[in-house]
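[job 4417] fold queue: 2 targets
>>> target A
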Amino acid sequence: MPSQALGPFPTPATYHPMVQGLMNMIKRNKWEDQFVKAVSDAYNSGVEETTYIKTLPDFYDYLHYFLTWVPREDDTGNLVHNMMSIMYFVLDQESVKSLQSPIQPSSYPNQPLTELSQWIVYFSFALGQFLNTPESLTEESLRSFYNTESYSMNLYEAPREGWHSFNDFFARKLLPGARPIESPDNPAVIVSPADSTFNGSWDISNSSIVVLKDLPWTIGELLANSQYKDDFAGGTFMHSFLVPYNYHRVHTPIEGKVLEAIVIPGQTYCDVTIKKDSRGKKTLKPSRKFLRTDEIDIPDPPGYQFCQTRGLIIIDSPKIGKVAVLPVGMAHVSSVVLSTKAGAELRKGDEISYFQFGGSDVCILFQKQSQVELLAKDGVFYPMGKQIAICHTAVQESQRNKNM
């Protein structure tokens, strides 16, 4: 079944406090004209998902509905994605973009978020609170995920007592053996930390800068001035992305000791654009590419990972060196939860974090001296545990040991 219009959304007797807060903000700042135009432009784009969001009051009704919406899926496997994309599609219209914090070097945390950007963060928190309640998951909604092929529910282990909330379900665990770790005893083999699609790698300069779409971003910004921020100068930065139906737990790509494990607060952002479906109808599609201009569906701007809420886990491997793994919350991901802590000794494939609701990203940083060669190909999906790179320093050491 193709994507379809969402709504109509009923008008409540009383709006959710988050929606009322936005209404008050718009009135106080005299932003009515900008928001009316944003909703109108989104509607006039012809995207099916905005069929019932023609006016600003319609947008308020949608936001109120979304805050207590019980997530479910349809045959397309796109319903969850499309429901959360509407908000960002409206907020990404030109008339309201200037009211939000820019995605640019040093925009966060050095500069405080704008009032609207801070509201977006609080909205995601409020949504996350509901998704942690038993009311956010019903027998009917759970059945819809089992009936949607892209969710591959046959790979997951249902708790004996069941999932207690949607977020509990969203962070569901795989069945034992569903994701075998490739070459678990070979330290030179680096594996995918998550079920994710590889989207490329970039060199880090000797001054700890990575240039994304001609904008220079410092690794210090990404790592929130971690004491290890300069250790990745001259190294490699890589990126992969997850979509809502993927397995949303993150595992270590190497073995080693955790030097640092923190959550870095930041913005909540997702840039949404339009594509045509098989019928030629305009729709919001559930895929995302980073820094690639061809066929972009949700083209998050270069460097958005440096501004988003994210986890930071730095692992020290005696054979590879330091590796930084950053699970990055996207859109309405209400939290990045760490499963490890500093001092922990990890085996390759051990869990280190998980996400709650939405799409997500994973970035990995390697040191220069590690001589890591990325084997992953752009646009290819790699299940957690599948090899994506090889460390040549570890290979060379192994060969030397054999020759002794």
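>>> target B
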Amino acid sequence: MIKDCFSRLSRSSLSVKRLLFGIALTLGSSFTLGAPQGSPWGADYFPNINLVNQDGKNVHFYNDLIKDKVVVINFIFTNCKLSCSLETARLRHLQTLLGDRVGRDVFIYSITIDPANDTPAVLKQYAEKFGVGPGWQFFTGKEADITLLRRKLGLLSPQDPADQLENHNLSVLIGNEATGRWTKRSLGDNPQVLVNLIGYQMQNKRIPRQEQKSYAAAREIRGYSPRGEYLFNTRCSSCHTIGAGHGLGPDLLQVTSQRDRDWLFRWIKEPDVVLAEKDPIALALYQKFKELPMPNLQLSDGEVAALIDYLEKQSRFITKSNESKWLLISGEKRK
């Protein structure tokens, strides 16, 4: 009887911890869940489940992946038609910004919620498609274990069925196991804010104070289109550049003059529909860029128009700037 009582108390304690963990994540990045010594968010809370990475290596979640580490964790599945490609592209952009700190100071983990389909080989192919660098691993495992992990990490509520793949939680979990500090964020947030959170705040470091620059050093304002610029920076920059070469998607320099305006509007508005119709331009882009489908960003007509306006003005500015530089270089060579 005493043993049974202790068992019920233990289960109750774990339930309270899980509730507190979920509440703490809701409060945001300023909330510290525990201290380095005696933190309740350690081996007795995080399940030490077995996972297998894209190279077929077996690991344990707590002991091998998060203990004493700063980590970034999200859940994906490779057959996702709605959002996973965009989220993976955004996470890849963060990896690029963090540079060689990934795999040394920060570790990124993407865990499938569709283990029946996402074998290590499938995950490896998916990672290669996105050009993922060192320090970012993809994992599969037993479905029951992964469901338990999602619930423990606050990314699957008790009332949500685990088999609704397309409606899974898109948040990313960022934490430092050693300090007990955890937060749940959106990959749609400003990338630089996320980099500062992951690279400095989670490392218990201050963001380096930047040297004050004069107004003379300020960059020239390119074609003024604030709404379009915001949309590009938050929705498009993970895959595209304007004049800096191809990324996961094509360079968008001069795209407004290279494509029919009505086609471009519809392509940005509903790329999934255009691709499903087997539009020849859409199919060619799909084949050229490793069969990574352009995601439907659910933009309004006004947002699409603002984005196109920004692309047009940016292209005009960059082209004019490049022409001026060429004339300057040509003039210097003739001297």
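[job 4417] complete. Note on B: The domain at 223-334 is CATH 1.10.760.10 (Cytochrome Bc1 Complex; Chain D, domain 2).
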